[in-house]
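Lecture 7, part B: from sequences to assemblies.

Below are the input chains for today's worked example.
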Amino acid sequence: MKKPFDQNAPYQPATFAFKDMAVVAEIISRYPEGRQQSAVMPLLDLAQRQVGEEGAAATPPFGGWIPRAAMDEISNILSMPKVKVYEVATFYSMYNLAPVGKFLVQVCSTSPCWLCGSDKIKQACEKHLGIHTGETTKDGLFTVVEVECLGACVNAPMAQINDDFYEDLTAERTTEILKALASGKQVPIGPQNGRTNSMALGGPTTLKDRVKA
Amino acid sequence: MPKLKIDNVEIEVAPGTSILQAAEMLGHEVPRFCFHDKLSVPANCRMCLVEVKPGPPKPQASCALSCADNMEVFTDSPMVKKARKGVMEMLLINHPLDCPICDQGGECDLQDQAVGFGFDRSRYYESKRAVKDKNLGPLIKTVMTRCIQCTRCVRFADEVAGTAELGMMNRGEESEIGTFIEKTITTELSGNLIDVCPVGALTSKPYAFQARPWELKKTETIDVHDAVGANIRVDARGNEVMRILPRLNEDVNEEWIDDRTRFAYDGLKRQRLDRPYIRDDKTGRLRPASWDEAFAAVTAKINKSKNVAAFAGPLADAESMVALKDLIGTNLECRTDGTQYDVSSRAGYLFNSTIAGIEEADAILLVGTNPRFEAAMVNARIHKTWRNRRTKIGVVGEQHNLTYPTTYIGSGPSSLEDLVKGKGAFADVLANAKKPIIIIGMGAFKRADGAAVQSLCRELAEKFNAGFNVLHTAASRVAALDIGFVSDKLNVEHMDVVYLLGVDDRETLDRIDPKAFVIYQGHHGDAGAMRADVILPGSAYTEKNGLYVNIEGRVQAAKQAVWAPGEAREDWKIIRALSGYLGRALPYDDLAQLRTRIVKQWSHFGQVDTIVPAEWKKFGGAGKVEAQPFTSPIDNFYITNVITRASLTMAKCAETAAENAARHLEAAE
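Predicted structure of the full complex, as C-alpha cells:
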C-alpha cells in the first residue's frame, strides 16, 4: 500500500529534535567507522517512538509517526542526502509518514490468515470502530490497516496492535480486545484461545504415538 | 587474466571485466536498460541475462557478473532468448504503449529492444498503473508512467552530478522515481538525465514535440559556452537548430554536457544581427545598410585614423582572430573581461594537467574559482576524482557548494603567500601529495595585481611540484593567446577606432572613448552592438567552420550545422572582404588557405584533437599583491554570454535557480 504523505499538511511540525541525544549517539556507535549511515533505520524508529510517546499523552491521542522534519534531522545527523532517508522511510511499511491512531491495528490478510477467516476480523474492526480500513477513528484511538504476512501463520488469523501480536482471533474476541484497549485495560498478548505460543491445539503430540497406533 | 568463451569465441580479458563488457568487445550485443558505462551497476532491469556454464541452470545478469576462467557464456541461446522475452513482457506490463506521442520514439531503448525481444501481443488484461508526473524544473519533462525503474537517473544524480536529489520512493507496485518533497532539481548537469533515461520518462522540455530523430541532420562540432570545448552534436532540421547533444570524448567531457551547452540553443534564434547597420549621423540611431555601405563607412574611418584597436570576444574562432590580427596588426587585446596576467609563456595560461589528468590528482587547490559555474565539466571531473579517491580539495577565494567537501583556506592572496611559506594545514596536504594540482580561475586574475597573483601561483606550483592550471571562461581565449592577440599596455581610452569581434563585456565597452568610432562584428544585438557605429553581422558557432583551442590547449574543429540568418556571413570572410576595401587584401581566399597560413606560423593548430604540451618557463608579473579577496567571475551560471542572454530557456533556468536559492536561504534562517 502506498503510504500517505503530505509535506504541507498542517500537522507537519516545522522542526524536530531528538529528546535524548545520548541514545542517538549510542545507536550510531553500533556501526563501524564510515558506515554510520546504517543507523538510519533505528533512528527512524526512535523518532517514531518519540512522537508516539508524545501522542499517547495528547488529547486527542495519536500514535507514533515520522514527521518530515524528523527525516531531515536524521539526514543532518548522519550527513547523508535527505532523499536517501526518504527512500528508506517510504520503503518499509513499519514507518508511518502521517499521524495514526494511538492503537495501530494491523490485520494480516495473507493467504493462511485469510483462509482462517481474516476477513471476519477485519469486518469486526470496521463494524466496532465505525471506520473503513486505512482510516482513523475520530477520537484518535484506532487506525485499522490491512497488512501482508506478519509471520504468525500457525496462529492465524492474527493482528498486530502497536508492538504486540494478538493471535488466534475470532470476531468476538477482536471486538473485546478493542473495547478493553479503548478503556485503558491491559489485554494479554499472544494467542487468545488459551493455547501456549504455537503449540498444537490439542496439546503436545509426538510421532511415537503414531508408531503405537 | 581470465580466459573464457563467449558464444564459442575465446577471449581473454582484464580481471573484473563483466561478461557484458567482454561480449561487447567481441561485438556481441547484449541488451540492457539499467547498465551504463559511467555509472555503478545495480543489475535491476534483468534485460542483460545470459547463460553461463558452469553454474546454476538459470540465466545470469551479465552486467554484474565478472568474467572467470573457463566460463562458457551464451548470449543467444534458446534459454537466453526465452528469459529476455519474459523480462521484456514484464517491463511492458505497466509501460504505456504511447510511442506515437512520445518524444523518445525512434531513439528509445525500450522500443528498439521490444522489436528484438518483445511478444507480438499482450497477455495482460488488467489495468495498468499510472504514476503522477513530477516537476523537475524548466528543462526536464516527465512522464513517469513510462518509467521502468532502471534508476539510471538516480545514480547519475548521485555519482556524476553530485547532487543526490532523486530517489526510488515506496516499493513494489507503488515504487516510483521522484524527489519525494516537491522540488526542482538543482544541478547544472540535469540535461544528462534525459540522455541516460532509456525510455521516454525524462525528456527535454524545450524540445517537446518539436521533431523526430530521423528528421534531423546531425553535425558533430564543439561547444563554445565555456572554455572546456565540450564535444557536441548539433541536430538541425532545415536551417533550425532543434537540439544539442553530447558526443563521447573521454578526455574532455566524457559523455556529459552542462545545461547551458545543451539548452541555450534557442538563443541562436533571437536577437540576431541579420544585416549590416550604420549609425545615422543626424538621428544618432542605427539604420539598416548594405554590406557595401557598411564597408565604405568602416574604410573611411580606418584609413583616416592612426589609433585603431581590435578586441576579440569570448566566442570568436581562431580563423577570424588571425584574419583580424593580420588586418589590424597592433593594438590587439583578447582579455576583454578585465583580467590581467602574463602571457609570455604558454604554460602560464594553459590547464597544463589536462582535464583527464585531474583524475590522477591526490590534492587539489582551487584559487579564485567556482568551477561549478565556470566549467561544469571540470567540476564534474573533480567530483569524480573526489568520489574515487577522497581527494583533499582546498579553496582560496569565495566558498560555494561545489558538490564535494572542500577545506576553506582563506579568501585572498595572503593565504597563497602562507602556503608558499609552508604555513597551514593544507600546505602539509600539498607537501605530502604525490600529484597535487592548482586550478586558478579568472577571479584570481580579474584585478590590477593579476600578474603578481600569477607569479605567486607559479611559485606555489614550483614549491609543491604541482600542476599549474588556469581555468579560462571564454572559448576563444586560449586560441587568441596562442596567436598573440594581446598587447602589453593598450590604452583603449586613446583609440579613435575600435574593432570589436563579438565583444560585449562591460569591462571593455566602458573603457572605450565615447567619441571613438566602434565597429561591432558579431551575431547578437547585445551590449556591443548597442555601442557600435557600424554593425557587421557575423555567424554563431553553429553556423561556421572554425578552430577553437580549449583550456588544455587542445585544438578542436567546429563544423557548420546551419546557415547564418539573412545577410550574416562567416566571420573570417567579413574581415577578408573588408581588407579588400581597405586596399590591403589578405592573402587567402578560402578557409583552407587561411588554415595553411595559421599552421605555418603556429604549427600546433595543424594537430586537431591533440594537446601540444607547453614548455615550463618563468612567467608572471612582479609587484606586490593586494590584500583584497578573490571574487568569482560568474555569479549566474545560466546567463554568461550573448547567446544565453537571448535564450528564453536560460532565463527560465536562472529564475528557477534564484527561487531555489531564496528557498535555501529561508530554510537556513
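Note for the exam: The radius of gyration of chain B is 27 Å. Keep this in mind when comparing with the next example.
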